[in-house]
Amino acid sequence: MPDIINLEVVPYGNTAYDSSTDSFTCQHGDGECQSDTLESCVMFELNGKNSDNMFAAQSYNAWPFILCMEEAEGNPTQGESCYTNSMLNANATSIEWSTISDCAINNANTVQTAAMKATPDHDYVPWVLVNGNVVENSNALQKAICDAYTGSNPPLICQHMTKENYLEEQFEISHCKNNMKQA
């Protein structure tokens, strides 16, 4: 599926900017701002210290780190471990963690401003768009991508994705969630 998408992740969410203090306040506190800044710094550094178009240009390359941070519930203390394991040890980049850490200290305003500018108006997060259309259920992202694909050779996963398979998958997800709540 990566061959048919242009991934753009903007780690900003419901952050607020205060122009009187030139500061950012994240919905879930300072830890969220630190994690968002680390994720943005990875894209900034991968993009040659250039904030122009960094989210569209580098989200796919930074995805292993972003995923690790999200799995760590955005805990900024996990940044170095996530970066080392998902980027350095996987040979995804040769940019050292110290460069990312320095960016988070010295370029936080630059990357947060870039994220603010790249964030569309939204009603909630995550705000997932496929071809400019909101995907209300982010669990249905794969189906939305397959439905939007207009090329002549859809990926194998899209060829097997039928309405019946999707409904069955959603039932299984719902059933698992209900069973987990009862446990």
Characterization of this structure:
The chain is mostly helical and 183 residues long. It folds into 2 domains: 117 residues, no CATH class; 47 residues. Helices cover 54% and strands 5% of the residues. The chain contains 8 helices and 4 strands; from the N terminus they run ββαααααββααα. Strands 1-2 form a two-stranded antiparallel ribbon. A two-stranded antiparallel sheet has the order 3-4. It is globular, with a radius of gyration of 18 Å. It starts with 15 loop residues before the first strand and ends with a helix. The relative contact order is 0.13. The model has no long low-confidence stretch (mean pLDDT 88).
What is the secondary structure topology, with strand pairs?
Elements: E1 16-18, E2 23-25, H1 30-46, H2 54-71, H3 79-88, H4 97-106, H5 108-118, E3 129-130, E4 133-134, H6 141-148, H7 156-159, H8 163-182
Quaternary class: single chain
Q: Count of DSSP E strands?
A: 4
Distance linking N and C termini: 35 Å
- Total separate domains: 2
- Strand residue percentage: 5-15%
The value of Rg in angstroms is 18 Å
Gross geometry: globular
Mean pLDDT: 88
Q: Describe the sheet with the most strands.
A: 2 strands, antiparallel
Strand order of the largest sheet: 1-2
Q: Can you count the helices?
A: 8
Helix content bin: 40-55%
Q: Please trace the helix and strand order, writing H or E for each element.
A: EEHHHHHEEHHH
- Classification by helices and strands: mainly alpha
Low-confidence stretches: none
